[in-house]
Amino acid sequence: MCLLCAVKDEPLRLRPTLLRDARDAVRTFLSQPDDAKAPFALGANGNNRFRGWQHLGENVTRYGGDGDPDDPNAAFARDQHEGIDLYEELPDACLPADSWARGVNPWPSSAFEHTMREYVHEMMRLGRDVLHGMAEGMRVSKESFDAAFHRPFWSLRGIRYPPLPLDSAAAAARSGAIDRSVPLSCGEYCDYGVLTFVNQDEGMSALQAQARNGAWLDAPPMVDDATGEEMLVMNVGDMLTRWTNGRYAATPHRVIHSQSASPRVSLPFFFEPSFDADVAPLPELLARTGDPAAFAAVKYGEHLTKKVLSNFES
């Protein structure tokens, strides 16, 4: 099953304006001139090299050689967005001595930090509820995943996408296949972890997911017709594919922001297991279905590290 769907916050109830408040906090920060954002940049002023502001085009999407940066055939295209990358701040003792994941986030302001910490808390609660529901849907114990989340290493990206020119190659081919060398708002890839919750500006359809038949489908922001409440788009990542033995397949997706003249703000929240979690097909699921394991075990932190270290190109 390839899954990308809209999610209401039932039975979890979010503060009514939280989704918008989180987007607006990101919008306020990223709308500033670059020199105002520079103190919070990746690697600036002693900042962790992987936490903080990344300027337009700093993030890249790999292609060729399956995107493997160790493959001499791998290439990249610069993504047409800027963002701020935030991760769980774990004690150093919980991470390898030389890990990129050590360190703290360079919060732009106390108000920004307060809003984001509230947002993270609520997204973590939502992720646990959804994962428990998935376990029950597969007829395995609701607690099957819990041990892997003793110190969840969540991440969050606040992203601002400038509109692509209407005469760009990406905009012209928006409904179909696009050569991966063509710069997009965000190039095609699959999420690395478990679940992703995407909080995106209303009225701007830019996120697309690829169906198993290869077709690209819009995943627009949605609002509940009865209540007017915003919904989140939920996506499946690599680790859930592995845990469910392929039952839930990670969804290739991309962003092409070409249908509005205004910048678009999006907040993908990545609900992830502990950095040291061992991820393999659930034994209880294999026992119930009689299927052989289609994936070997992997440590989440090792998988994440390989992906993150290939996200940038000088």
Automatic annotation (TrEMBL):
<dbReference type="InterPro" id="IPR005123">
    <property type="entry name" value="Oxoglu/Fe-dep_dioxygenase_dom"/>
</dbReference>
<feature type="domain" description="Fe2OG dioxygenase">
    <location>
        <begin position="152"/>
        <end position="273"/>
    </location>
</feature>
<dbReference type="GO" id="GO:0046872">
    <property type="term" value="F:metal ion binding"/>
</dbReference>
<dbReference type="InterPro" id="IPR027443">
    <property type="entry name" value="IPNS-like_sf"/>
</dbReference>
<dbReference type="InterPro" id="IPR044861">
    <property type="entry name" value="IPNS-like_FE2OG_OXY"/>
</dbReference>
<keyword id="KW-0560">Oxidoreductase</keyword>
<keyword id="KW-0479">Metal-binding</keyword>
<comment type="similarity">
    <text>Belongs to the iron/ascorbate-dependent oxidoreductase family.</text>
</comment>
<dbReference type="Pfam" id="PF03171">
    <property type="entry name" value="2OG-FeII_Oxy"/>
</dbReference>
<protein>
    <recommendedName>
        <fullName>Fe2OG dioxygenase domain-containing protein</fullName>
    </recommendedName>
</protein>
<dbReference type="GO" id="GO:0016491">
    <property type="term" value="F:oxidoreductase activity"/>
</dbReference>
<keyword id="KW-0408">Iron</keyword>
<dbReference type="InterPro" id="IPR050231">
    <property type="entry name" value="Iron_ascorbate_oxido_reductase"/>
</dbReference>
